Each structure stands twice: as C-alpha cells, then as structure tokens.
Amino acid sequence: MGMDTSNVQTNIRGLGAIMGNMAASIVVLVACIPEIDSRGAYKPRNNAIYALSLACFSIVVTLTLMSMDKKGKQIGGMANLGLMSFLAVCWLVAACLVTFAGPFETTGNGYFASWAGFITSGYAAMAAYNAK
C-alpha cells in the first residue's frame, strides 16, 4: 500500500498528540472560567484570560486538523511544523504563566492540564518534524 511501519507510527503519534492537546485544552478552558469570572484586574486573571484564549485557539486548530484528516486532506509539512511549533511555544508560555504566577499555583486540574497542553503540543511538533 506504499506505507511502512514508521510512517504509520508517526501519523498515529501525531494524531494522538493532537487529540491529547484537545483534551488538555478543554480542561484548561473549564478551569479558567471561575478565575476570569472574578472581578478586578489582577495578574492571575490576566494569565487565565491568556490560557483561555490559547485553549480556544487550540480547540479550533485541533478540530480543523481532525476534520481535514477525516476528509483525507493534510496541510503541508512545513506549515504543519510551523503551526505545531507555534502552539508548543504558546503552551510553554501559558503553562509557566498560570502555574508560577497564578491562578493554578497549587496542583489541580488546571495545573496539570496546562503542562499536558505543552507536552502534547510538543509531541505534535516533534511528529510534524519527523514527518516533513
């Protein structure tokens, strides 16, 4: 069929990381809502707004990539690498912001989901790099 095991493994690993990123994004989205709802402009609220925005963007990207994969279409190798690398850097910034400066300074769903978002986007970036 023109496919070898390394190609199939790379595609599965990349899609699994994207699905994991979507799950982490949903958890971060839900965990940020009470933090944003609080009144006043304090630093953890601004960090939560950034994390919520990134989670929404990640969900849109993930749903787009999954629908393209279902239709049998793919974005180019370098475009995929650039997009996944951008997400990985954004998730690293978000994880550091929300876990070191608040609102997720103590361990919980938001704390772990923020780091899971970074890890899964990093795996997706590495899968895109290996596939290009």
Sequence-ordered SSE layout with sheet pairings:
Blueprint: H1 5-37, H2 43-70, H3 77-100, H4 109-131
Helix pairs in contact: 1-2, 1-4, 2-3, 3-4
Description:
With 132 residues, the protein is mostly helical. It has one domain (5-131): Butyryl-CoA Dehydrogenase, subunit A, domain 3 (Up-down Bundle). It is built from 4 helices and no strands. The protein has helices at 5-37, 43-70, 77-100, 109-131. Helix 2 (43-70) packs antiparallel against helix 3.
Short description:
The chain is an all-alpha fold. It has four helices and no strands.
Supply the number of helical segments. Answer: 4
Main sheet characteristics = none
What is the radius of gyration? Answer: 16 Å
- The N- to C-terminal Cα distance equals 20 Å
The appropriate CATH architecture is Up-down Bundle
Features:
mainly alpha; 132 residues; Butyryl-CoA Dehydrogenase, subunit A, domain 3
